[in-house]
Amino acid sequence: MYLYLYDSFLNNKKYSNLLAKIETRLTDLGIGGKIFRLSPLRNLNELLTDETRGGTKTVVVVGNDKTLGQVINIAAKLEVTLAMIPVGPDNKIAQVLGITTPEEACDVLAARIIEKIDLGRANNTYFLSNISIANGPVTIECENKYQVTPQLRDQISICNLRPLFAANWGQVNYFNPKDGFLEILIQPLAAGFWSMFKKTNLVKNSVIPIKKIAIKSKESISVTTDGQKILKTPVRIEIVPNKLKLIVGKTRMF
Amino acid sequence: MFKKEGGDEIETIIGPSVQVEGNFVANGDIIVEGTISGSIRTEKNLRIGEKAKVFAQITAANALIAGEVQGNIKIKENLELTSTAKIFGDVKTKVLTVAAGACLQGKCATGEEKKAKLEKIEDFEKAEKQKSRLSLNNRLESDPIVERVK
């Protein structure tokens, strides 16, 4: 049984035609189900818990990365399979999962290729894609064995899924959400005007596969999970292997 | 030893802007372009770039060094020092390749450890022979027929 969660921004009229198309396509494929529209007043946790108790096995998120990020924290604790229909702006995760358009997402949903993937956990918050750390003096303590100290201007992220800018790196070993590792990605920010036009070089970046880290700093620095929830340092991050069942497309980047 | 950039073998990269302190252990290949102090250990390949500075004990299967290393190096198979390499420490490896211009200050042991084992075997054989001679002598001395002949 399918449960469709529509994000609140889809109430905007400009999406009504697209949603109607999606619903028709889903009915044609025989995978229609209950539809719920999210709103700030609706408690997502209660809703999902009740529905899974009622027999819902697949939860389909209709929206963008932010919507998926909200649902993942609850879905990780439940026995459900998660899927996504990307609608609206900021849909980077869907591309990594091999879903580019809403129409394609319906076919992917019907094909039902299920992958059990790892999730990252920062303190008690689960994340699917990545964690980004604001600029500031931080120390990353890895596996309780060694410390990594990036420079002040470096851009630091902890990745589970492959970032889109790294799509052409060709490193199959990196950013695989099924390998039981997270990757620390440290990118030195280009200095000067002309450096804006320089291509990013893989060797200039640092990539360190890890299972468990702690981010520490003298002053409190913000850490953002999947571009939405903000935590403050110190933050403990670890990989939780095979935590989430996800429906993915054939063109997925892992 | 290493595949080209974009290959599937490369696993850990320490970029030029990064400093690592402590016991750095990796399961796969390591490329170091930054600074490491403490120790480096991998079961696979290690490459230390031209501008890298390593103040650490190194243990790896194969290594290619182009930068500066202060510490002892223990490599199971091949160690290659390029012309820009500067090593201040003892080196132990099976096969060592040194390019012209490389700096190596420290003890250097290359080749397999079999020689030492062979020596041990030879010593053991000598000891065995001596033992057998001694036991023969003892038997002869205690033999009544030999005593009569005497």
Rg of chain B (CA only): 25 Å
Mean pLDDT of chain B: 85
pLDDT averaged residue by residue of chain A: 87
Shape of chain A: elongated
CATH architecture name of the largest domain in chain A: Sandwich
CATH class of the largest domain in chain A: Mainly Beta
- Briefly note the CATH topology name of the largest domain in chain A: Tumour Suppressor Smad4
Largest sheet of chain B: 9 strands, parallel
Tell me the total number of β-strands of chain A.
16
Largest sheet of chain A, if any?
A: 10 strands, mixed
| CA radius of gyration of chain A | 19 Å
Rough outline of chain B: rod-shaped
Please tally the β strands of chain B and state the result.
15
Q: N-to-C SSE series of chain B?
A: EEEEEEEEEEEEEEEHH
Uncertain ranges of chain B: 3-7
Strand content of chain A: 35-45%
Give the N-terminus to C-terminus distance of chain B in angstroms: 73 Å
What distance separates the N and C termini of chain A?
A: 27 Å
Ranges of chain A where pLDDT stays below 50 over 5 or more residues in a row are none
Helix content of chain B: 10-25%
